[in-house]
Write a structure and sequence with these properties.
The protein has 2 domains: 173 residues, Beta-lactamase (3-Layer(aba) Sandwich), CATH 3.40.710.10; 109 residues, 3-Layer(aba) Sandwich (Beta-lactamase). Strands 1-3-2-11-10-9 form a 6-stranded mixed β-sheet, sandwiched between helices. A 3-stranded antiparallel β-sheet has the order 4-8-7. A two-stranded antiparallel sheet has the order 5-6. The two termini are 26 Å apart. It is globular, with a radius of gyration of 19 Å. It is an alpha+beta fold and 312 residues long. A hairpin with a 4-residue loop joins strand 2 and strand 3. The chain contains 10 helices and 11 strands. Helices cover 36% and strands 17% of the residues. GO terms for molecular function: beta-lactamase activity. It catalyses: a beta-lactam + H2O = a substituted beta-amino acid. InterPro entries: Beta-lactam/transpept-like, Beta-lactam_cat, Beta-lactam_class-A.
């Protein structure tokens, strides 16, 4: 348990604060394709050994790029954003309390992450389980949250009711076994996942208060070696990433100085299945993130520190 609280303290003290959230929609009514950016990104994605989809939107100007943005991809751990939404929808009914104490049982064990390493009978607040789901992508904690949300069907119903009709939880969800075999834990499109993150940012997911809490959780990311490594460390981001053997994905909303932008890159059927920093999908995440930062913030002189790879 000591290691759990040390990690919680580290995440709490090192995570930057989130700016005050507006409850007013921030969507641009004038979304338009950005041909210059599209050409740059098309060239960057060319030659990738696998399938790739990308969605980009600059929230202030409405400039957008969509490359296979409505194609279904495996979510891997990015499904933990919809799980959080489903959980907060249940919290809103009063059936659960965010700070209530939970009791861990060995029957919940999925893998040996932080939650899965707890002893049978250990007590932990629900709020900490949610934080671990989003920040370190704890799988046992995430499946626990999925169950507490009412299961995959309840989460999928919330997604459908809120206009996200391509994003679905598959695992441990009745009637979705065929989808699970094809896509794994969940499925989504780059456009929907990016717009779900914007939906939370705008205070429209469950309630303004719930959205703010969810957004704060998404601003504390331990796995920051790919897309986030190409964004200055003093710039606030909300994000979630995911990876399985043949897929790498990341969705990021960047609070850039000259206007927020969101992007989601997803891959599948990758030939490169290596679990290394030089995996082609991981490299593509860094390259796309760097290009977008330089494009939207052309006067920025920030560059990733020389030799930073030795740490990551």
């Amino acid at each position: 348990m000591r290691s759990l609280y040390v990690l919680l303290l580290i995440i709490g003290y090192l995570s930057p604060s989130v700016p005050a959230q507006s409850t007013q929609p921030r969507r641009s009514d004038a979304r338009r394709n950005d041909p210059k950016l599209e050409r740059k990104l098309t060239d960057l994605l060319a030659g990738f050994r696998g399938d790739v989809g990308l969605y980009v939107r600059h929230l202030k100007t409405g400039r957008t790029v969509s490359l296979n943005a409505d194609t279904l991809f495996p979510t891997a751990s990015t499904i933990k954003i919809p799980i959080q939404c489903g959980l907060f929808a249940r919290l809103a009914t009063g059936e659960l309390a965010y700070q209530q104490e939970l009791i861990y049982r060995d029957s919940l064990h999925y893998d040996d992450g932080i939650v899965g390493s707890l002893k049978d009978g250990a007590r932990i607040p629900l709020s900490q389980v949610v934080m671990l789901m989003e920040s370190v992508s704890d799988n046992t904690g995430s499946l626990w949250c999925q169950a507490l949300a009412g299961g995959g069907q309840a989460i999928n119903s919330w997604l459908d009711a809120n206009g996200f009709r391509q994003t679905r939880v598959n695992s441990r969800t009745p009637s979705r076994e065929a989808n699970r075999k094809q896509y794994g834990w969940g499925q989504t499109t780059p456009r929907e996942l990016a717009e779900l993150l914007v939906y939370i940012r705008e205070g429209r997911a469950v309630s303004p208060d719930a959205s703010e809490r969810m957004y704060r959780n998404l601003g504390r990311q331990y796995w920051d070696g790919d897309a986030l490594s190409q964004i200055p460390p003093d710039v606030q981001v909300a994000t979630k990433n995911g990876a399985v053997n043949q897929s790498r994905s990341e969705v990021v909303l960047v609070h850039a100085p000259h206007g927020e932008y969101v992007f989601c890159l997803m891959t599948k059927n990758q030939q490169d299945e290596r679990w290394t920093r030089t995996n082609e999908g991981a490299m593509l995440l860094r390259q796309v993130s760097a290009l977008l930062w330089q494009y939207f913030e052309p006067r920025s002189t920030w560059k990733p520190a020389v030799g930073y790879e030795k740490w990551w």
